[in-house]
Each structure stands twice: as C-alpha cells, then as structure tokens.
Amino acid sequence: MTDGLTDPKLYELGWNDSWDAKRLRSGAAGQPARVVRHDAVKVLVATPRAVGHVTFSRNEPLAVGDWVLVANETVTARLERENVLERDNADFGTQVIGANIDVVFVVFGADRPLRERKLMRFVAFAGDIGAIPVVVLTKTDLVDDEALLVQTIERSLPGILVLTTSVESGDGIQGVFDQLAGRTGTFIGESGAGKSSLVNALMDEEVAWVSDVRESDAKGRHTTTHRELHRLPGGGLIIDNPGVRALGLAAEGEGVESVFSEVEALALACRFRDCSHRSEPGCAVRAAIEDGSVSEDRWMAYVAFIAEQGQAATRAQDRDRAAALRREAASNQRAKDAAEGSDEM
Fold first, then answer.
1. How many helices (H) and strands (E) does the chain have?
2. Res 220: pLDDT
3. Which of 48, 76, 170, 292 would you label with 272, given CA atoms 20 to 30 Å apart?
4. Residues in the chain with pLDDT < 70?
C-alpha cells in the first residue's frame, strides 16, 4: 500500500485534521487506513489507493470504521476512537457494531405495524454515543397514508428528523444522501426493514445481498451477514449492519434523556428532589400525565428504559469485578511461580 498522508482522497474516507493530530500523538509509524471489514484473523482496510487485508494484534480489538496505522501489511496502532456503537446484552455481554460514526439511521419498514417503544429504544441507543439519530421510514410505496405514520413517529420522538423512502420509486433517497454528506453513517433496525435495499440504492449497485421477505409477517432473513463500510459515489460512507432484533441500552449515555427530554425537564420541576413520581405532592410529572401533556404510555416507556440502564450498570459492574478477580488470580499465580522457582535455585 502506498503512502496516503498527503493524498486529498484520504479525506473521502472520513479523515480530517483531528485524526491527523491523533496520528501524531500516537507516535506510531504507518500509513492511515480505515477498517472496512473484520475477517476473523485479519481486517480489510482501505487507503486512498488500495483495499487489502492486514494483520492485527489480538490485544487491541478492531471494529468496522476504526482508523488504524499500517506498515508492512500489519496494523501498528489503532487511533483513539471518537465513539463506538455497541450493544449490551445480558446473554453475550458487549458487542461492538461500529466505530467513529457521525449519524445513525434507525430504519423501520412501513409495511409492518409501527412499534413506537422499539423505535424510541433504537433512537435512544443511537443517541447514547452522541451520534445524530435519524429515523428512516422505508417501503412507503406500500402504504396509503405515509403522512399519518410520520406524524405518529414525530409525536413519539419530538425533534428527531424523519425521512420517508421508497427504493422502488427512488423517493427520499436523496434525503439520505444529504444527511451523509461528509459523514460516516450506519443503519440499525429489524431484519427485513429494507436496510440492504437502501444501501444498494445509495451505492447504485448490488453491494449488499437482498433476500425475500415473508409475506405473512413482513420479516426477512438476515440479508447482511457481516458489517462492512461502503464509500458512497456521491460522498459520505455507510456501515451496513445485519438486522438487529433486540438492543440493550447502555449503562451510561444521554440517549434516554434526549428521547424523553420533556420528562427530564418536568422531573426537575418537582417539589421534592427525590420525587418518585408516584404520589408525592407537587409532582410535576404526575401533573403532566393527569392533564394529558405526557401520555401514560410514554411515561411507562421512560420508566422501563431507566430501569434497564440500571440493570446494564449492574451487569457492567459484575463484569468489572470478575475481570479484577481474574487479574488478581493471575498475578498471585505469577508470584507463586516466581517464589517456587526461587526456592529451587
């Protein structure tokens, strides 16, 4: 791979002065490259002039979207991430979805019933890392009244941009392009929502496999089996993701607070600082629920998400304690082995 440090096309991969400063701070040698795909023991990286596989250290895990320095077909350093999009699940712990993401498109198909709470969860999940969340309603050619769907979404997510698209007619695709100009984005959403078709429409070619959707429930098989970064013809980059059926909210992050900003503001107006918002006098939240300015469903969703964040925090603490115990056990074993070796001399 050739040196691309001064190549203007490096900026087409998302490079900027901030990344150059991080490169200098790292003190490592090598050419900047961006991780395009993770292939087990190797990663596929892109430079302005080439795409190829390089090896990396297991001690420094990589994700699609990472910026790395490469020398002799080996990763010499991973630059400090701007953010990382990951999901926390009780069954398999933390799973990284992508890194250095500017905008997260939450994709829902208009051909299925709208699940408002799940939509709020996905937007909160996106907001946790400080990325810009955008809702994309796909397959609008299959419904008669897309305006009603948009109104419902905007009521659930005030202040969040909602885009309507149809890959069949091409309607709304330019709006997605506009949000990606000079940015790195990713799509999250249920399998069968139309993410792969949307990627293909943006790329104007079949870069993501598309499979049929079952007519009975509008769900599709996972048409994307791995995460991959695509550079768009008109500028910008997109990380294609497999369908995500469930997302665990992070222990920390501002996504929930952002989605429920009006509830957070009301809570600050309660008479008592430790108000539980159940039966205390002077509770601004209960007053808003009673006068209809905040729906009971919206309040219950907020309570559920806050509780889930608490559970995620507990799991994270448990994992940290377990890791600390493993490190302590390993340290004790090394000390024991050293002492036994000394005794034998």
1. 9, 13
2. 41
3. 292
4. 1-8, 87-94, 205-226, 242-254, 309, 311-313, 315-316, 320, 341-345
Asked if residues 132 and 180 have their Cβ atoms less than 8 Å apart, the reply is no
The rounded distance, in Å, linking the Cα atoms of 18 and 166 is 36
Separation CA 149–CA 164 (nearest Å): 10
Contacts of 34 (CB under 8 A, 6+ apart): 13, 14, 15, 45, 46, 65, 66, 67, 68, 229
- Tokens, residue 116: 């408002």
Q: What is the pLDDT of residue 178?
A: 93
- Would you state the structure tokens that stand for residue 181, as one six-digit string? 């100009």
Q: Which two tokens stand for residue 233?
A: 């013809």
Whole-angstrom Cα distance, residue 144 to residue 155? 20
What's the rounded Cα separation, in Å, for the pair 122 and 57? 32
How far apart CA 105 and CA 238 sit, in angstroms, is 10
- Show the tokens assigned to 323: 């890791």
Q: Write down all domains in the chain, each with its CATH number in brackets.
A: 8-78 (2.30.30.140), 84-240 (3.40.50.300), 255-321 (1.10.40.50)
Expressed in percent and rounded to 5, the helix, strand and coil fractions of the chain are 35, 20, 40
- pLDDT reported for residue 139: 92
The type of residue at 103 is V
The position carrying tokens 């089996």 is 225
Total residues found in the chain within this entry = 345
Q: What amino acid occupies position 96? A: V
Burial class (CB in 10 A: 0-12, 13-18, 19+), 65: buried
Distances (CA, A) of 148 to 51, 118, 120, 154, 241: 45, 18, 17, 10, 28
Q: Is 255 exposed, middle or buried (0-12, 13-18, 19+ CB in 10 A)?
A: buried
What's at 330, amino acid-wise?
A
Identify which of 89, 66, 60 has the alpha carbon closest to the alpha carbon of residue 79: 66
Q: Residue for token digits 């994709």?
A: 107
